[in-house]
């Protein structure tokens, strides 16, 4: 993707999605313009404990027979279920969309407009 994108003619989000679809065989590129974003972190923290020494992205193997048990690096098993679940909300909260502020929009316009062809 890093090599294909600079070689591609991308002028809008649809062009970008088209490049992504051509390059990726396993992932599907979709526009999330009309999709809601949810605060999954606070929602799931009602049910699960935070695991120390874990980076942002980790892969784990789960077994449906041992719910809430996660194998750790030293081959021990950690129970991540909270003993006392205090449910404050039944569904994840919808996050407000964060757009670009006016100052950044103007800066981006000034930087990019020199490369846009007159029609």
Describe the structure concisely.
With 119 residues, the protein is α+β, with helices and mostly antiparallel strands. The protein has four helices and four strands, in the order ααβαβββα.
Explain what this protein looks like in three dimensions:
- A hairpin with a 5-residue loop joins β2 and β3.
- The longest helix has 11 residues, at 13-23.
- This protein starts with a helix and ends in a 7-residue tail after the last helix.
- The protein has helices at 4-7, 13-23, 40-44, 102-112, and strands at residues 37-38, 69-71, 77-79, 94-95.
- It is of the alpha+beta class.
- The protein has 4 helices and 4 strands; from the N terminus they run ααβαβββα.
- The relative contact order is 0.12.
- The strands form 2 sheets. The chain has a two-stranded antiparallel ribbon with strand order 1-4. A two-stranded antiparallel ribbon has the order 2-3.
- The protein has 2 domains: 1-34, no CATH class; 36-119, no CATH class.
